[in-house]
Design a protein that fits this description.
With about 325 residues, the protein is of the alpha+beta class. Helix content is about 35%, strand content about 15%.
């Protein structure tokens, strides 16, 4: 790619944004008003996902966000209401205790709030997006927020509140599991969709995966490339897009069959708010693998809390400083 003047536009995944901007590979779009103005028609939050260091660096090819889906039939059997939209991971722990019931009267509790693995807390991606700053090369894990989250996660395993051996992301909720993650789109129908819990400090932050179309810094046809990006994000192009690329607030421009089944008002509101408070995913594979290993050892009682968070933070800052 380096120095290839024939390459005007590149498609990049969100985790690579920092690397490519650091290497001056991407051109700022701030000078192209006909591109910037398209964001006024898009959902709140999308423009922020396309920014780096206060500059617009690309337009979204795809944006993927997630929420949680509830097993409505199981909730009715458990006589539980859906959690409040402002619930936190503390509330999640309390809800998990309520969800642990014996519903077939065999004397054994057989329902769980989620299924998962000891080394994979469902808050980890959310936390990483909030507390890892790739631009400043800083990470914070040795703090009260992360410690309290880990303590909660360990308590849940110690108290048998999580179904072991499964994955939190499943195509279909199991009969004895209350919640699973799901992709969030505008065609959710009236499914029982809820917000993921907020971090303990109350921060609303939801990981978003996206692919960006960016103009290369070595392109000799930047103006023509910007014209293409403007057309790509235009109303006319959106009218012909697929649901996973629907970016505009005005639903009326989309074909009705594309939004079938169209989301309920409640699910549309959740979609808007999750997108509004989304943060571009900043996954670092080496750090994630290391972090999962340390968390697994802590939850299994093989590492004390203070040592675990110190090891993760030291590793994070070592990787970020390279």
């Amino acid at each position: 790619m380096a120095g290839n003047k024939d390459m005007d536009i590149i498609l990049i995944d969100s985790p690579f944004v920092t690397v490519l901007t650091k290497n001056n590979t991407i051109t700022s779009l701030d000078g192209y008003q006909h591109v910037k103005e398209k964001f006024t028609y898009m959902f709140d939050g999308i423009e922020n996902l396309c920014m780096h260091d206060d500059e617009l660096i690309g337009v979204p090819a795809t944006v993927s966000i997630e929420a949680w889906e509830a097993n409505q039939e199981l909730l009715e059997n458990l006589k539980l209401e859906l959690p409040d939209k402002s619930w936190s991971w503390y509330d999640f722990y309390e809800y998990a205790k309520l969800a642990r019931k014996d519903i077939n009267a065999d004397g054994i509790k057989d329902t769980y709030i989620i299924e998962g693995r000891k080394d994979s807390p469902p808050f980890l991606s959310q936390y990483n997006c909030t507390y890892i700053d790739l631009e400043k090369k800083k990470a914070s894990f040795n703090n009260e927020e992360f410690k309290n989250l880990l303590v909660l996660w360990k308590k849940m395993w110690d108290e048998d509140l999580v179904a072991d051996g499964g994955t939190f992301i499943t195509p279909k909720i199991k009969d004895n599991i209350v919640f699973c993650k799901c992709s969030l789109t505008l065609s959710m129908g009236d499914r029982a969709i809820i917000y993921p819990p907020a971090l303990l400090g109350g921060q609303k932050s939801y990981p978003a995966q996206l692919k960006l179309l960016c103009i290369t810094s070595f392109s000799e046809k930047k103006d023509l490339a910007a014209e293409f990006l403007s057309v790509f994000c235009s109303k006319e192009a959106q009218e012909r897009t697929v649901i996973t690329r629907a970016l505009y607030k005005d639903f009326s421009i989309y074909r009705r069959d594309m939004l079938n089944p169209s989301s309920s008002e409640k699910n549309i509101e959740i979609f808007k708010n999750v997108l509004k408070y989304s943060i571009r995913e900043n996954s670092i594979p080496e750090l994630r693998i290391y972090t999962l290993g340390i968390i697994g050892e802590y939850v299994s009682g093989m590492l004390p809390l203070e040592k675990a968070v110190t090891m993760i933070e030291d590793k994070a800052n070592l990787i970020l400083g390279e």
